[in-house]
Structures are given as C-alpha cells and as structure tokens.
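**Sequence, structure tokens**
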Amino acid sequence: MGLCVKGAAIATGDILFFTESHCWPEPNVLELAKQALAANPDWAGFSARSIRKTHNRLSEAEADMYEADIEYAMLEHPWRKILDQCFVVRKTAWQESGGFQANLGHFAEWLLAARFYQKGLTVGYAPEICVHHYYIGDFAELEEFTTDFIQGHARFLTEQATDPAADFFPYIPYWSERSNYLRVNAWLLLFLVLKTPIWYFPVWACLQHWIIALLGHRAAVLQTRFQVWQSKNWLRLTLFLRPSRRVEAMRMYCRALIDAAAARLLHSDRPATAVNNLLPPSGRYCFGDRPPANLEICSFHLPESWQGHSCRWSEPQALIHLALPPGVYQVHLTWIQMGTHARHRLRFYWNGQKLGRKCELTDVSLRFRARVDGQTPAWLGWTCGRLAAPGDSRRLGQLMEQIEWRLVNTCEQTKGSAPLVLRV
C-alpha cells in the first residue's frame, strides 16, 4: 500500500490507475478506463473486473471465495466498492478523500471506500475492463495478508477511534474484547463467579476465568492457534476429498486466521483506564456505543438493538471500570428486563463491596451513591443467573442499556475509613 501512496504522490495526470504486483492488464485497459470515466461523469472512480489465474487447489479455493466476496461488494454492498486489484480514480476525488493510508496496510482499501461513501463520491463498477489476477495459493501468504489487514484495522480503531468512519466497520474478534484477557479483570470476574449462588453456579465460566487469570492473553493465543491448526488441516482434506466444500472450508480457515491475528494484538493493544486519563465528573455511556478509552467494560457481547433501544448483552458475570476523579458520585444503571429474570437474582458489587439496602434496585434500574478515591479506577460488577434463549448459544445475563454518573460532593471525606457505599 505504501507504493500506491508514493505513486499517487508523484503522478502528474488527472486519472490514477491502481493495481497489484501480481496482476497484469489487458492491452487496451487504459483506453477503456479513460472511455468509462468520460461516459460516466458522475463517477469519482470505478473498480474493474479481475480474471483468475490459478495453479493449485488452494489458489482455486482462494479464487472461489474472493470472487464471491468481490461480486457481493460490487453489486450489493452499499459502500465497499474499491478493489485494489484494479481501481481507477480521478485525482481530485482521491485527494479530497485523503487517499490510501499506508500505515494501515490492506485495511486502507476499506477505509478509503468508506470515506468515498461518506463524501457522497460515487464509485462505479466496469466489468468490461479486466485485469488478470494471479492467486498465489500459499498458506504463509494468506496468513501474512490477514495479519496485515487486522493490524491495520486495529491501528485505525486505536489511533482514530473518534473518526465517524469507525462505525462502518465490524468489531474485531478478541481484540474488541481485549479487556476480558487482562489478568486483573479475570480475577475480578472470578470473584463475581464465586459470589454466584450454588444452584446456578457457572462451572465452565469459573474454569474459563481461572485460566485467563493465570495465562492472560496467552489463553486466547493458544486457543486461536489450535483453531488455525484445526481449520488448516480440514481445508487440506477438503481440497482433496470434497472439492465442492472448499469455499466453506476456506472461509472457516480465514476466520481462524482473523481470530489468531487479533489474539496476537492483545498484549500490545491494551485498553487504557489509567487514573491520569479520567472521565468527566458527570457523564453517561450507552452500551450500544463503543466505550471511550477511560471506560472499560468486561464480559459483554457485541452491541445490538432491541425495539429501538441501543443496548448490549452482558454475560451473567460482568463489570465496568470507571476512571473517575475523587469524590462522592451518584450512579444510575439501567437495563431492559427480559425473560423471567427477577431482581432478587441480581447481586451488585462496587469495588468488591456488595450493594445491599443502601441502593435503590428495581426490575430495570440500579441507583446508589459511592465514594471514589481517585487512586485506582472504580469498578461496578454484578452476577445473575443465565438467561435461556432458544437458538442462542451465548451466555446471556442482563441486556444493559446505559450507565450514568454524577458528582454530588467533592468535600466529603474520600479517604481513610469512610464507607465505600453511601445511602441514596
């Protein structure tokens, strides 16, 4: 991608033509490209069709999978219209959208497509213009490409988290849940598990949190390495014994590569809830949004919408870290009542202290006052029974809607023997 950026910087023409090193064009491709832009003045650019060149079974499986993805992107997807195998663009539109970001690797292709869509720039598709695409058909190349893409995606979400384009892209498995793989959080979740009544004690969750508490991010690395080994061998068998299933096996292998690449980032890309990066004294977080850097959520599923409410399922044991300035706060947590969950099955803890009669608890909300010393991020955790949802294998606890906090007193004693939890 860096060579594309350098080439665009020194180009003197009004039209830029991008392709890859393992692609070669038809003899008349430049003339056809010029005619396509002249015939479609509303196009800021367009992607062309690629013709496969394969040489082994793996390259044929690659071609089958990627061609299906390309066809979907070009004909159905609302904004993923840029294909770096052959992309022709007017230089003014390229400059207006910012071009490829070289430091993001292959993910820069998706980001540029999203920026074109944001700016209302039309990217067409010209299947009559062709380049020949050589599929390498090598496992090491596949892993290198996938790792480069995921690293670029994670770098973008880390460095440009507030960019409006961030909402266009899917969450990265493991990396988006990296708070779960910090040992300190695993110990806290294990504490919550051990507070669960024996009649619905989650044995598997207890074992899972205990392993992560001992191994940290290495637990995810080991798990994903095994998945890569398993799916890779399944793909090899499928290529020889069941060629009709090769696309399915190829997708399974690529998903395992994505998970493994994301798991390797857990050690370096850790969420920041340090006390020098504090939340405002009053604020609100909706669980359907991406959490800010100084608010950390652990043991949650991906955001979703229910009856117009933006929300997120927690697991039966979950917690939130709040890096707040010193003082006394009123905290208000709301969720959506689902199934037969009763409030007496919910147990809440603030920095390890149980919230009992000092809080206001209803079927859909919790309100309490608590002291924050400002030295370490405060945490609110809870444990409940697992909600049985037909057809959903996830461990579901509460459907969380939002949390709100408000500083009510900065003068009260916030250190020493003052109680952690005060009456509302």
Summary: The chain has a mean pLDDT of 89. Residues 193 and 205 are 8 Å apart (CA to CA). The first helix runs from residue 2 to 10.
